[in-house]
Model the fold of this input.
Amino acid sequence: MNNVAIDVHNTQSSSSRPCHVTGRLQDTRSRSANLDAEQKKYQLGASTLFNIVSDQNTLASAASAEVRARINLAEAKVNFDRAMGRTLEVYNITIADAKSAICPRTH
Done:
């Protein structure tokens, strides 16, 4: 297998798919709802500060995992474009623009 085929294959790993980001987003939302519920229970005297802090920690971890999933997806897209040799095309960059230091609008 040549390097291009290997690079393309490597950029299609499961951790860099949009569904992975969606799953992480849903997890963050769920953890946020859990924290809200725990805070309401605390206000009613049915919970403890330990439970609140624990849920805050869990939410922070979920949010961090969501950010990492988004970064992985962005990196995978850039790496895929690089492996396919179309980075300049994707960002609408021409050699003439690069020589004249013109910065085209990106999407």
About this structure: Residues 49-83 form the longest helix (35 residues).
